[in-house]
Amino acid sequence: MKNVFGKMILAFFAVAMMSAVTPVDDGYKVGEQAADFALKNVDGTMVSLKDYKGVNGYIVVFTCNTCPYALMYEDRIIALHNKYASMGYPVVAINPNDPSVKPGDDFASMQARAKEKSYPFKYLFDDGQKVFPAFGATRTPHVYLLDANRYVRYIGAIDDNAQNPAEVSVKYLENAIAALKAGNNPDPSETKAIGCTIKVKS
């Protein structure tokens, strides 16, 4: 009985997270060029997209330490960087949450998490929350695939199964990268991001 009740709670939590989409009127659309930015990495250095040399694009992922969906995708994000950085598509992870609303997403906690998981990618803090609204991100995780000139080519989810990577049937992001590598436009170019709402001061 307890197991059944637990599964019901998890199912309710999942539906709540998926249904409460925060609309963003502003933000980059597919085909628009993203502006560069400068954000602090967990090693204390300031990082911009222009610092990446010889890239074919960027996998910009808005993620965090505390969201259950971000944690479910964490190993997949690491694997994406390990697979695609050498092909010229590095992961650029950005924590957009306000730590006064979500203390577990403060900079020190970011540093601890990056060290614990041996992040192979930059993990940047959107201090002042200026970058995520420019992109139009609403969720953690929320992915923006940019080409080498920072034009947005894909927006949305990493794949179609947050809970179980073994049951993924469509790898949206990887398919989008494959399309770019082949000189084609991703199809679909946009999917619904599934995750927790980005935390801002009310």
UniProtKB/TrEMBL annotation:
Membrane-crossing residue ranges in chain numbering: none
Keywords (A to Z) from UniProt: Signal
Keyword Signal attributed: yes
Record-linked Pfam families: AhpC-TSA
Domain Thioredoxin, chain residue ranges per copy: 28-178
Gene3D superfamilies: Glutaredoxin
Signal sequence segment: 1-16
GO molecular function list: antioxidant activity; oxidoreductase activity
Official protein name in the record: Thioredoxin family protein
